[in-house]
Amino acid sequence: MSASASVTARRLAAAALAAGALVSVAALPASAADHRPARPVVEISAVQADSPGRDDRSNRSLNKEWVELTNTTRQSVNLDGWTLSDDSGHRYTFNHYRLAGRATVRIHTGVGRDTRTDLYQDRRAYVWNNDRDTATLRNDHGRFIDDQSWGHRRGGRH
Q1: Which of 24, 91, 113, 116 has its CA 20 to 30 A from that of 6?
Q2: Are 59 and 83 in contact (CB under 8 A)?
Q3: Where are the domains of the chain?
């Protein structure tokens, strides 16, 4: 083998190794996507989509429809600008609210006075469909945090 052929062979081998390294690095995110994401700091812990009793659109009935969020850490979380939405595009935006560590807040559909443990969307109509819907929580940057579904074929979280 001549010297120039030897140099060419080494260059080809180096290029092949570099290409193989690039392919393996590009494949890493795909395999990482197979793993479930870490448990969210704030999660949808309960949903009461079908308010008990008659659906008469009274404020009492509307406030028996709710979604609960729980902070799973010891640190408080600023929810200002976070949103809670349904499949139909109804959206509630948190305004100047901080969820204490290991605390739960209930977001009611109807009208009421906000407290540390209860927030109100101040709506005059139901938001959550009784038969099927999805409650989706997003942070102030619009990034997905958690969701809870009911009545869908697979049911539960997805």
Answers
A1: 24
A2: no
A3: 1-35, 42-149
For 94-123, b/e burial (b = at least 16 CB within 10 A) is: beebebeeeeebbbbbbeeeeeeeebbbeb
**Mean pLDDT in residue range 94-111:** 98
Q: How many helices (H) and strands (E) does the chain have?
A: 2, 10
What class, spelled out in words, does domain 42-149 have in CATH? mainly beta
Query: Does residue 139 contact residue 133 with C-beta atoms inside 8 Å?
Result: no
- pTM score, whole prediction: 0.73
For residue 50, the Cα-to-chain-centroid distance in whole angstroms is 22
pLDDT at 23 over 90: no
Instruction: Give the residue carrying structure tokens 């949103």.
Output: 83
**Cα distance between residue 40 and residue 44, in whole Å:** 9
Task: Give bridge partners of residue 99 from the DSSP assignment.
Answer: 77
Sign of the CA dihedral with 38 first, then 77, 82, and 111 last: positive
CB atoms within 10 A of CB 134: 20
CB 84 within 8 Å of CB 107? yes
